[in-house]
Amino acid sequence: MAKPIIGIVGRVATSKSGDDTICSWEEIRLSVIKNGGVPLLILPTNDFLYNKQEEIPLLTEQEKEDLYSIVDLCDGLIFQGGLEWYEFDTVIYTYALEKDVPMLGICAGMQMMACVDKYNTFKDLTIPDETFINHQEKTKRYVHEIRVEENTLLHDIVKSENLHVNSRHSCHIDGIKNFIISAYAPDGIIEVIEYPYKKFVLGVQWHPESMLKYDKQANKIFEYFLKICQKK
Question: What's the half-sphere exposure (Cβ side, CA atoms, 13 Å) at 81?
C-alpha cells in the first residue's frame, strides 16, 4: 500500500546565513514520516516578496489553478505554525475544504482556518493575548491544561477530557462560524476547532509536534490524521 502524501504548506523564514526561505519546520516533517506519511512541501506559485505582505500581488486565476493541481497530489495537508500566513494558504485551504481533503492546522495554521471561516479573508484578524496565562512559554514542556469537549473529534482521538499542552503564541481567535469548538484553555482561549461533516479538519492552538518525545497523547493527533489520509 502506498504511503499517503502529506502536503506541508510552506512558512516564510530566514536561514542562518540570512537568506529568505520558505520551509517546513523539521518537527512537522518528522511527525509525518514517523506516522507513515510522505512529506511534500507546498510553495507559493506567484511572485512572492518576502516580509512585505502588503506588496504581494493577489494570485491570478492561473496561479490558483497551479495550487489546486498541487493539492490534488496530496492525501492530506498540514498548515504549520509561524508568524503570519498569506493568501496562498487560504486559497489552498478553501479548495481543500471543498474537496474534503483531510487537514491539520497548527497554531497560526488554526488561526488562518478560523479567520477564513468567520471573516472570509486571508487577513490576520486575531486578537492579542491579554489573559492570566502567559502563552509565550517557548521553553516549557507544559504551560496549561485544556478542557476537551465530549462528542468531538478531538475527544475521539485522545480519549480524555483534559490534556496538558505547551504554548507559544501571542494572539488568538475571537470566535468561529462554521467550526465546532472542541477544547478551551482555563482562560477561555479557544484551543481546538474542528469542521463538522468532513473527514478530518482540525485546528490546534498548541504545538503537538514539539511534544512527541515526552508526551504519548501528542502523537495521537498525527497518528489519527495519517490514518484518515491513508483511507482517502
Answer: 19
Other C-beta atoms closer than 10 Å to the C-beta of 19 total 9
Global pTM exceeds 0.85? yes
Taking 3-state DSSP, the helix, strand and coil percentages for the chain, each rounded to the nearest 5, stand at 30, 25, 45
Q: What is the residue whose three cell numbers read 479567520?
A: 115
Say how far residue 56 (Cα) sits from the centre of its chain: 22
- Are the beta carbons of 219 and 121 closer than 8 angstroms? no
Within the chain, what is the greatest distance between any pair of CA atoms?
49
| Strand-pair partners of 23 | 11
Domains and CATH numbers, the chain: 5-230 (3.40.50.880)
Q: What is the pLDDT of residues 47-82, one digit of tens each?
A: 876 656 777 888 999 999 999 999 999 999 999 998
